[in-house]
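User: Here's a chain of 451 residues. Predict its fold as tokens.
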Amino acid sequence: MTVVKTMNSILVLLGKLILKISQLFNFGSGSTWPGHIALILNDKFIENIIDENKNLRIIVIAGTNGKTTSTALLKFLLEKSGHKVLTNNEGANLLNGVASTIIRNSDIFSKLNFDFAIFESDEFNLPLLLRKISPDKILILNLFRDQLDRYGEVNTIALKWLESLKKLDSKTEVFINGDDPQLYYIGTKLAKKVQYFGIEKKLMKLKDIPNDVDSIYCPVCLSLLKYNQLSYAHLGDFYCSNCKFKRGEVIDFSNKKIVYPMHGLYNTYNTNAILLLIESFVIPAKAGIQTKYSLNVLNKWLSEFTPAFGRQEEINYKNRKVFILLSKNPAGFNQSIQTVSEMTGKIKANFLVVLNNRIPDGLDVSWIWDVGFKPILDVAKNIYISGDRVYDLNLRFRYENSKNIINPIEDLKEAIEIIVKNTKEGERLFILPTYSAMLEVRKILLGRKLL
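Assistant: Prediction complete.
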């Protein structure tokens, strides 16, 4: 055994020990610290282990919204077909999360006995991850404003993505949201095999360009883009009247009767992306492994899928159905609001909106002014608001509504107990938290930390 292999075996053992201690004392799931320490002691830990496991097929999923949901769905479908799959499934999508996932799933000899590894990556981390691994497939879901103080504007991220994707091995297949102008442009600049997903045009019902748009200027000539039809934010059937840049052919599965497993237009995008990815696999025949997926089989599996934590997750708490929708940026928040508005129909419900501005959320909360809260007000009995920036949120809601249904409560646990008390047993209530708030909410409801 070489010095490097010995060092990595020690790091795996050390990481597994940290993982056990973290879980034993309820510090969290150990999804970041084992990898953080491993990378401090060996900055090439990830590439070393991947190089030792050449039969492992690697998929990277990146984007602003939908990464964890899409990763969970792909893992679920691959496992249903008989494959062994590892993922950074707690949403730990920085390099330390990837390294921790490797530690958790490898044996002491650094062997990963899996068929597939799915690594989700946040926007800023993607170029860093692609320097360490060369995936077989990479899925780019979308690109929206998120944590501007950390990431910068979307144009900056798009340029970094383009440069990273150009450097990938020619074997890598790229799957891109063809309804996103910036991403579609990136796809046209790659020499690799690129496939585009989207949604069918009849689902694009937005009439006017909303406040949460990020990429409405032509990436070729910088003229203002126009839309034949618009789905949400800046996604849709776009075109430039100046240089003729336009949306190309996308796979939208409109010719198939897909059973979509989650609410909301954004999850139609996520599901279509994963279905396109699944269709691309060429899998050698092997006992116990399904290599072809009929529509009936796929629909059956889709109907059995349970969303990832905090993403349309329903928790039973004191005989109330608590429906949690992670809402962490303008585009995602507006989609959550549209989804819950459609779910409630004519029956009004209680809502809790929680706004934090910690490191995982981004420190700047000015983005709440690009969220359209009016649809919640139309379907709400009461709206409770909480979090670190409860009074910023209170001011934002007061601009939308003069009715006395807005209830600011500084203490999150108290807010949860009050909304539960004011919701009848058996009824559903909705919680829309930012990322760190979602983790706090789940700890209160379930009595344990996630990360």
